[in-house]
Amino acid sequence: MGNRKKHIKQFLSLLIVIIIINTLSSVWFHRFDLTKEKRFSLSETTKELLTTIDDYIYIEVYLEGEFPAGIERLSIETEYILAEFKSQNPLIKYNFINPTESTDDNTRNEIINQLFEKGLNPTTLQIKEGDGYSEKIIIPGAIVKYGAKEFALSLLKNQIANTPEQSIEQSIRELEYEFTNAINHLTNPVKPKIALISGHDELEGVEIEDLTNSLTEQYTLDKINLREFETNADGEPNLKKKLRDLTSQDLLIVVKPKRKFENIDKYFIDQYIMSGGKLIWLIDATNADMDSLSSKGTFLVQPLKDLNLNDILFKYGVRINNNLVQDISSSKIPIPTSFTNNIPKWELVPWNYFPVAIPSSNHPITRNLNAVKFDFAGSIDTVKTRTKINKTILLQTSPYTKIVNTPHEVSLQTALKTPLQEEYKRGNQALAVLLEGNFESIFKNRINKLTADLPFKENSKPTKMIVISDGDIVKNQLSRGVSLPLGYDRYEKRQYGNKTFILNAIDYLLDEDALIDIRSRELTIRGLNTQKIAKEKTFWQLINIGLPAMMIIIFGLMKQYLRRKKYEK
After folding, report:
1. Residue 144: CB partners within 8 Å, gap ≥ 6?
2. What is the pLDDT of residues 321-371, one digit of tens each?
3. In the predicted model, what is the mean pLDDT of residues 135-157?
4. May I ask the CATH architecture of the domain 192-519?
5. In the list 6, 143, 333, 386, which could disulfide-bond 351, CB 3.0-4.6 Å?
6. Confidence of residue 525 (pLDDT cuts 50, 70, 90)
């Protein structure tokens, strides 16, 4: 009887302890991250952002269903991150959805098309089933909603140079950045102001529709024509008003101009930079264009001598050469290789005039970035300046390059020739360069009657700019008149990193240092040593299978021995 009361007391005591622990845990919540690099802990930037949210944020993640191990792992890690977000602020609500679960083909295709229009690209997986493979379409992305606004983000980073395992690891590394960046853009009431420069036949409209749509979601986007002016009361152009319009912008972007910049245009841009403005130059130094090639099969590439930008770029520290870079690391284009009954047979062949730059720099703009596709790019040289300018090469070709000077005839027939590696020995060629420092005005010590009565600064505040030798890296392809996502190649059916690169560049120039720090955060995801596994496979199989069996046998023999010894007495 006494033992029974004792057991009841112990049970009641244990029950009371469990109740107290559960009560305290519901009030006081804490997670312990024992990983060396604090992989499961959110950065302070993310925590601060989440504490400012005062309205519901809904996140729809399209990673629900049966997946291969890698995608399943990405889905689990995504849920971990979102659970951390929710633990910081209960206004974060998330839900995992299977967009392809409908058995009706029309319904399923309509959902996929709707998500594609929002910026989420479907991915086809090959799944092994028995002796064969089956294909499954997944949409590894999410939609973040805040009020009437929403933000689409891709969760799977398919880098060309990466193995599937490396792509999964990179995707997991960037989960916090992707969701934090989306929430920041949706909840930030003050949007930085960006203007596209026009007036020189720059790219615009449907050609850069995906870029402008993305910028409109995240920034206040404007277009400023340097060749149009409001007039004063005396009918003269109001140049000061134009300068004020420019200096009110946080960032200017010049996208592939084809007509000459007059001195007054350069004055506006120069003084904008002297005021501390940020700028991205996307400049083609030649007239190379695939439209001319596709209509004729051959055309003569010539330098664009009338842009009148060489002197201002040289003053800031770079020179865009009017040559063409050919690279063995290149994208592909469709070419008719044969004809049957006058019907062409098309094949995708490497096109060395379209370099594919695989980022190797550890800079925040390009760290973990997918390969970036260029079209008819020229090389960039850095030059010495009077003031100290830090020059960082963000993107460059592979070591296996060839330089052709212009004028130069380009023909589709060259794509059918196998490149000889001994001819491609010019080494890495810079294609995108970041300039940071105090710039000197191109108009310093120069008499300019046109701007004599206008404000003038000889040297800039600390600022930065990026120079890229190809405007087409921000040009989206079209399919039946509809804009495709920037960086998506409809022939190769491959997503390049053009869009991420340009958006990262904009974030960096706009001093979004906190977000850049999250993205560049190094998280070591420790995988298994496959070579060691193969080498020691038999040993560990014996340990895992044989050791437990041997322990059971020894335990049984010992028990039998002790039992026999007990009863022998």
Report:
1. 57, 58, 59, 150, 151, 152, 153, 179, 182, 183, 186
2. 999 999 999 999 988 877 777 787 888 999 999 999 998 888 889 887 889
3. 86
4. 3-Layer(aba) Sandwich (3.40)
5. 333
6. very low
CATH number of 36-185, picked from 1.20.120, 1.10.8, 3.40.30, 1.10.760: 3.40.30
For residues 258-292, b (16+ Cβ closer than 10 Å) or e, as one string? Answer: eeebebbbbbbbbbbbbebbbbbbbbbbbbbbbee
Of 98, 93, 124, nearest to 111 (Cα)? 98
* Cβ burial, residue 22 (10 Å; 0-12/13-18/19+): exposed
Beta bridge partners of 96: 61
Q: DSSP of 42-60, one letter per residue? A: --HHHHHHHHT--S-EEEE
Among the listed residues 144, 250, 214, 303, the one whose alpha carbon sits nearest the alpha carbon of residue 498: 214
Task: Provide the total of helices (H) and of strands (E) in the chain, helices listed first.
Answer: 14, 26
Please state, in angstroms and rounded to a whole number, the distance separating the CA atoms of residues 96 and 84: 16
Nearest-angstrom CA–CA distance, 529 and 174: 23
- Stretch (H or E) spanning 347: strand 343-357
Spatial strand order of the sheet with 92-96 comes to 92-96, 57-61, 141-146, 149-154
DSSP string covering 401-415, please? EEEEESSEEEEGGGG
For 324, other C-beta atoms within 10 Å of its C-beta total: 23
Burial class (CB in 10 A: 0-12, 13-18, 19+), 477: middle
Q: Do 86 and 92 meet the contact criterion of CB atoms below 8 Å apart?
A: yes
Q: Which of 319, 322, 318 is nearest to 303 (CA)?
A: 322
CA distance 454 to 456: 6
List the chain domain ranges: 36-185, 192-519
> Residue type at 201?
D
